[in-house]
Each structure stands twice: as structure tokens, then as C-alpha cells.
Design brief:
Distance between the termini of chain A: 37 Å
Radius of gyration of chain A: 17 Å
Number of strands of chain B: 2
Distance between the termini of chain B: 44 Å
Number of domains of chain B: 1
CATH class of chain A: Alpha Beta
Oligomer: heterodimer
Helix content of chain A: 25-40%
CATH superfamily of chain A: P-loop containing nucleotide triphosphate hydrolases
Number of strands of chain A: 10
CATH topology of chain A: Rossmann fold
Strand content of chain B: under 5%
Number of helices of chain A: 9
Helix content of chain B: over 70%
Strand order of the largest sheet of chain A: 6-7-8-3-9-10
Largest sheet of chain B: 2 strands, antiparallel
CATH architecture of chain A: 3-Layer(aba) Sandwich
Number of helices of chain B: 11
Radius of gyration of chain B: 19 Å
Shape of chain A: globular
Chain lengths: 234, 288
């Protein structure tokens, strides 16, 4: 079976600074994979490399068997790979509904996700559809960011720190939508600083430290002590 | 009726200034690029229209439409081939490039057309006037220029706030990197924006070319009025730009009535007063 995403020997650079060293990662169709690691471990860079915001070698990133490492982000999202960026990054001059609509810019598939379906999953957004996004609560903003990514009807959804700065009860609400998203045919990568939460919601995980994968496997198979070692490096 | 007719005249002149300014406002709003060649681009478009009417024998309307298409293509190409290379975090390189473009255009036009003053001939249309009130009538041409300005701003507003392309323009203006994650090709969006700006500048060129003489050297003065209209109206607001053009036109006309020497000066003074009282302009764009 072709992997939804296969990352092979990925190096990533910001100018002269190397952020990732020889990363290997695989995401099977229908799977949820978590990427954990401390601040600055390279988690966000990894997602940006997959989504095309950081360019790499063509064959360093494959999406459904096609090399996409050197493709621009705008083309990758049209193939069906969407990123929910860290810090939500909504468009402040667009209303809630316009932020969702822009997510479907150039999308020809129109199913399973459209405006109506997103509003069914996040009913509060329908009430606030004409509102200014900067007036929403943090949790509502995160719902817009996820809904916006879903509007492109991705088969792979990358979620970067979707719990950042949110109250625990809101985070649970947001995480509850992941199985639904997966049920609609998307594989998911979540990046989290909250290790316990990440391990609870994933099938497999990768732990990054200083730009390298230090541990990977199924949460049930790995002792917490080993995760701690891989996370902190001591 | 001395007071009333200078007000009417000022508002009509404001329509022309607003048309100068809309193209400038568009590029700045979307790309944060200050196009110092904007005035020369308007003059260039006026010469293109002139050539199309004289050399090809086209009517003014057809010549304008043809020039709009040509200017759109030139704008698109200008962005993809030149401006794109210098756009970045540093605002100085694009500023210098458009400054250079301004000089190239002025001298190119001088070489091609000479330094003579030209005017677009609108035929009998120029002399027709419309009575507004007893003892007060306005020229049809300036009236149409104002109506055109209102229609252009209204159409651009529709484009920006009611279409997918407009959303893409605004999203790119907010955050170009995240806009790419939406499948928006930033290079095309910017090129479309510059193309649109130059097409709108063509409309400015025709209204202004009928109204007054032009020669290759007057671009920078048009740029100054355009800047003032944009700043008076408030950055990033197209209706504000229209209002800014009208304020400028009014100030110039009323000043000119008091003393003809004050015409230009009073426009600049009005600009300075607005800057002092409302530094962000009359209708600054609300960040939604």
C-alpha cells in the first residue's frame, strides 16, 4: 500500500542554519501520527517542509507516491494535503465565513467538506459567520483554522499545535473532532508539546530532538521512561 | 452662484484625481508596494490611447478599451519579470526600481513623442454641457469622469468583497505565506493586482487626457496628487481614496477662485491640514 505521506532523509535549512537532519517518517492512509518534541526540536519545520512552505529535495517528501519536496505550497494543497498552521494564522481582514471560504480556494472536489459540513461540526461558527475573526475566542479561532484547512478537502491534514494557548476543556472539544475528520477519509499528523495528549490520540508517534528522530513507535509499546529520554535527551 | 459652481467644479476635478489614485491605492493595499512610476504610467497610457486614435484611426472609446487590455498585460508582465525580483522584507529595492522605471518611461516617451503638449480629442462631446440648476451647468465630459470614478470604485469594491479572487487578494495582503497554504499562487495574485492597477490607470489617463494637456514630463505631478488623495482618504480604503480625490479637487478649485496662484498650493495645504488633524486619513481601513 502506498503511504499517504513518506518523508525520507529530509534535511531542512533556514539560510545556513540546519533545522532537520535526515528525517524519516511515514503516514499510512487513515492513520493518525503524532510528532512530539521540545521547543525548537524541529516539529513545525517538519510540517512546513511537508506542506511546501520550506522547500527540499523532490523525493525527500512523497505524497501518495508522488515526489512533492520541491513543489510550492499552493500546488501541494490542491493535491490534497493541508496544514493547520501554528498560532492559527487567520486572515484578519476576512470574516469567519470568508476565512472558511478561502480555504476552499481553487478546490474542485467540494466533498466531503463544504461550508455546511464545517458548520455542522462547529455549530458556533455558523452563529458567528459574519463576525470579525479577531473577536472570536481562542478556541473558536482554532475551529476556524481547522475548518479552513478542511475546506480544501484534504486526504492528509497536518495540525501544528492546535492546543496552544487554549483551556484544557476546549482542547478536548477540538481533539474530539479528529476521529470525525479521519472518518471522512483523511490521515492526520498532529504536532504537540503536550506529550500525554498526543500519545492518547495517535496510532503511532515520532519524537524529535534537535532536528533528529530519537524515537518512534506505538504508544502502548514504549515505556514512558524511554519517551522521556527521547524527549529531553538525558 | 460663484460659490456653488466652484464646489461643483471641485467635486468633478476630484473624480479625476480619484481615478489617478485608485491604481496606486490598489497596489499599495495588496502588495505594500509604493509605485513611484504610477504618474508616468498614466501618461504612458494616455500616449498609447493617443497613438491608437491617430495612427490606427480608432474611436476614443475603442482605443481606450484596447489600451486597457494592453496595459493589463504590461502590468502582469512587469510584476512577473521585474518587480517580483525585488519584492521582499526590504521596501527600498522596489521603491528604487519603480523610481528607475519612472525615469525610463519619461525619457522613452520624450524620445518617441517629443516634448510637445498633447490632448485627447473627444469630439463634440467635449463641448456638451448639462444644466444642473438655473444658471448652473456642468460639462458632460467632467461629469462622466466623476461618474466613471464612482463606478470604478464600486466595481473594485464588488471584486474585493464579493468574489473569490477578491478574498484571495485580501488574504494575500494579510499574510502572503499563509495565503499559499490556501492554494493561492502569490505570484499570480500580485501580477493580477499590478495588471488591474494599470488597467484602471488607463481609465484615469483617458479622463485626464480629455480634460487637460499632457506631455512626457508631467507624470510625477500626477503621482503627487494621487499620493495626496490616497493619504487624505486613508490608506487601504478605496471609497476613502475617492473622497480624498474630491477633497483635493475642492481645495484646489476653491483656492484657485480666491487667487489663481493659490490653486496648487491650497491643494497641498488641505493635504497638510488633514495630516495634522487626522494622521491616518479621513477613512482609514478598519482592520476587520
Amino acid at each position: 500500500m502506498t503511504a499517504a505521506v513518506r518523508v525520507h532523509a529530509l534535511d531542512a535549512f533556514y539560510g545556513d542554519f540546519q533545522a532537520l537532519f535526515g528525517i524519516d517518517l511515514e503516514l499510512a492512509p487513515g492513520e493518525t501520527v503524532a510528532v512530539i518534541g521540545a521547543n525548537g526540536a524541529g516539529k513545525s519545520t517538519l510540517l512546513k517542509s511537508i506542506a511546501g512552505l520550506v522547500r527540499s529535495r523532490a523525493d525527500a517528501v512523497q505524497f501518495e507516491g508522488r515526489p512533492i519536496g520541491d513543489q510550492p505550497a499552493a500546488r501541494i494543497v490542491r493535491m490534497g494535503l493541508a496544514l493547520v498552521p501554528e498560532g492559527r494564522q487567520l486572515f484578519p481582514s476576512l470574516s469567519v465565513e470568508e476565512n472558511l471560504l478561502i480555504g476552499g480556494y481553487g478546490d474542485r472536489r467540494r466533498s466531503p467538506w463544504n461550508l455546511n459540513r464545517v458548520y455542522e461540526v462547529f455549530p458556533v461558527l455558523r452563529e458567528r459567520r459574519l463576525s470579525d475573526v479577531t473577536l472570536l475566542s481562542g478556541g473558536q479561532q482554532q475551529m476556524v483554522a481547522i475548518g479552513r484547512a478542511l475546506m480544501s478537502n484534504p486526504t492528509v491534514l497536518l495540525c501544528d499545535e492546535i492546543s496552544l494557548g487554549l483551556a484544557p476543556i476546549i482542547v478536548e472539544d477540538i481533539y474530539r473532532t479528529l476521529p470525525l475528520i479521519r472518518g471522512n477519509g483523511a490521515s492526520i499528523v498532529i504536532v504537540e508539546q503536550d506529550v500525554a495528549r498526543a500519545l492518547k490520540h495517535c496510532d503511532r508517534f515520532y519524537c524529535l530532538q534537535e532536528g533528529r528522530v530519537t524515537l518512534s513507535g506505538r504508544p502502548a509499546d514504549i515505556a514512558p521512561e524511554a519517551v522521556r529520554m527521547a524527549y529531553f535527551g538525558t | 452662484m460663484g460659490g456653488l459652481d466652484s464646489i461643483v467644479e471641485g467635486v468633478l476635478l476630484g473624480g479625476v484625481y480619484a481615478l489617478f489614485a485608485v491604481g496606486l491605492s490598489l497596489i499599495f493595499g495588496i502588495m505594500r508596494l509604493v509605485n513611484l512610476a504610477h504618474g508616468d504610467i498614466i501618461v504612458f497610457a494616455a500616449f498609447l490611447i493617443l497613438t491608437a486614435t491617430l495612427a490606427l484611426g480608432l474611436s476614443l472609446g475603442v482605443a481606450t478599451l484596447l489600451t486597457m487590455v494592453i496595459m493589463f498585460v504590461i502590468g502582469f508582465a512587469l510584476q512577473r519579470l521585474v518587480l517580483e525580483r525585488v519584492l521582499g522584507d526590504d521596501i527600498l529595492p522596489p521603491l528604487l526600481v519603480t523610481f528607475g522605471l519612472s525615469i525610463v518611461l519619461q525619457n522613452g516617451l520624450l524620445l518617441g513623442y517629443g516634448a510637445d503638449s498633447r490632448r485627447l480629442q473627444a469630439g463634440a462631446f467635449e463641448q456638451v454641457s448639462v444644466p444642473l440648476a438655473p444658471g448652473l451647468s456642468v460639462g458632460l465630459a467632467p461629469l462622466i469622469a466623476l461618474i466613471t470614478a464612482v463606478v470604478v470604485v464600486a466595481l473594485l469594491q464588488l471584486l474585493f468583497y464579493r468574489t473569490a479572487l477578491g478574498r484571495a487578494f485580501r488574504a494575500t495582503a494579510d499574510n502572503p505565506e499563509i495565503a499559499q497554504l490556501m492554494g493561492i499562487d502569490q505570484r499570480n495574485i500580485y501580477a493580477l493586482a499590478v495588471g488591474l492597477s494599470l488597467a484602471v490607470s488607463t481609465i484615469a489617463a483617458v479622463t485626464f487626457g480629455i480634460r487637460s494637456n499632457f506631455d512626457p514630463s508631467i507624470g510625477p505631478a500626477r503621482l503627487l496628487y494621487a499620493f495626496e488623495a490616497v493619504i487624505i482618504g486613508g490608506l487601504g480604503s478605496l471609497w476613502g481614496t475617492l473622497a480624498g480625490g474630491i477633497v483635493l479637487g475642492l481645495a484646489q478649485t476653491i483656492g484657485g477662485r480666491i487667487d489663481p496662484e493659490w490653486q496648487i498650493l491650497s491643494g497641498h495645504l488641505a493635504f497638510l491640514v488633514v495630516l495634522m488633524v487626522r494622521p491616518r486619513g479621513l477613512f482609514p481601513a478598519r482592520r476587520r
